Amino acid sequence: MKFSSRFPILQVGVIAGVAYASAVVYVVAANSPKAAPAPVDHGGATYVGEAVCIACHATQNNQFMHTAHANAFRLNPKNEAQKVSCESCHGPGSNHLKDPISPSNRGSLVGFTKEWGTPIEKQNAMCLTCHQGEQRMFWPGSAHATQNLACSDCHNPMAKLSETGLLKKATINETCYTCHQQQRAEFAKRSHMPLPEGKMSCVDCHNPHGSTTKPALKADSVNELCYNCHTEKRGPFLWEHAPVRENCLTCHNAHGSNHDKLLTVARPFSCQQCHGNPGHQTTFFNAGQSVGGGAGVNSRVLGRSCQTCHSQVHGSNHPAGARFQR
Q1: 3-state secondary structure the chain
Q2: Among 273, 220, 277, 284, residue whose Cα is nearest residue 250
Q3: Confidence category of residue 107, pLDDT binned at 50, 70, 90
Q4: Beta 256-257 vs 191-192: how paired, if at all?
Q5: Interatomic CA distance for residues 45 and 91, integer angstroms
Q6: Strand 315-316 relative to strand 239-240: parallel, antiparallel, unpaired?
Q7: 116, 140, 259, 325: least surrounded by Cβ within 10 Å?
Q8: Nearest residue to 116 via CA among 154, 77, 90, 155
């Protein structure tokens, strides 16, 4: 009884203490001077206007005028920075006009090529001025960011070479293949994800701008990503297969394989990597029962092999499914 009578008093005291601490924090924050944003140093340069840029860069203008950036800057600018068009990305151009040919004066503008010499951090900072948040939320610390990639390594904002994304190649996949040659080879194997057929693209599974996972997956785990399409494998099941629940990549290659169903190892060897204990599993093969062994071929070696009987290998809800047979 003593505990029950004191508990409301204790509860009220805790609430009051939290409220008092919150009020103190609010008052201090309200009275603290606001830190002014650091001004951008353009070396004293001033804006000269898009018409001055086009007077020399007519070819670049002809390519640029078809892009999403041109439509945004010229027809529907969101702020004053976008109204200056070319200089919203390259910076004010007055210093560039003083000596436009000399290589030593390249620092007066932000260039988006490796030859120009602008640091990668400065290039990406210009892009992130507009393209912050959403898909770029995890860009800092992502695999591409830590490899010191620039936005312009994948995108070409000055020309419409792709249907979407202002990419440097015609498609998303071709852009990714520029660096990821191993994955390109895997997609060419006999069993592969339907990416070469155009039914999906790399960004259906990955976010190239970063995510919460190391391979930039668009989910918190491999299995959660696979379940987006393979919902019948999600479960829950009465009888769960441990390696399936752990990671789909235990048995499957993500991009492609020369074995059926993207398996890392052909059946029945895939199963026997774990189920190698003496008994039923290891009596499948001997000199007379293996394919080409010279005697009657064991039917369990052919077709779906182990899965001819254990058909529900990803899990089963049948009362008799402890061995994944239904």
Answers
A1: CHHHHHHHHHHHHHHHHHHHHHHHHHHHHHHCCCCCCCCCCCCCCCCCCHHHHHHHCHHHHHHHCCCHHHHHHHHCCCCHHHHCCHHHHHCCCHHHHHCCCCHHHHHHCCCCCCCCCCCHHHHHHHHHCCCCCHHHCCCCCCHHHHCCCCHHHCECCCCCCCCCCCECCCCHHHHHHCCCHHHHHHHCCCEECCCCCCCCCHHHCECCCCCCCCCCECCCCHHHHHHCCCHHHCCCCCEECHHHHHCHHHCECCCEECCHHHECCCCCHHHHCCCCCCCHHHHCCCCCCCCCCCCCCCHHHCCCHHHHCCCCCCEECCCCCCCCCC
A2: 273
A3: confident
A4: antiparallel
A5: 8
A6: antiparallel
A7: 140
A8: 90
Q: Exposed, middle or buried: residue 183 (CB in 10 Å: 0-12, 13-18, 19+)?
A: middle
- Looking at the chain, how many residues does it have? 326
- The residues pairing with 155 across neighbouring beta strands, listed in sequence order, are 167
Q: What is the rounded distance in angstroms from the CA atom of residue 86 to the CA atom of residue 83?
A: 9
CA distances 150 to 118, 127, 154, 238, Å, are: 11, 10, 8, 49
Q: Using the predicted structure, report yes or no on whether residue 153 has a pLDDT greater than 80.
A: yes
Write down the domain spans for the chain: 62-92+106-180, 225-286+297-316
Q: What is the pLDDT of residue 29?
A: 39
Residues 6+ apart with CB under 8 A from 100: 56
On whether the CB atoms of residues 202 and 173 are closer than 8 A, the answer is yes
Q: With 70 as the cut, is the pLDDT of residue 303 above it?
A: no
Per the CB < 8 A criterion, the answer to whether 169 and 160 are in contact is no
Cα–Cα distance for residue pair 205/166, rounded to 1 Å: 20
Amino acid at 183: Q
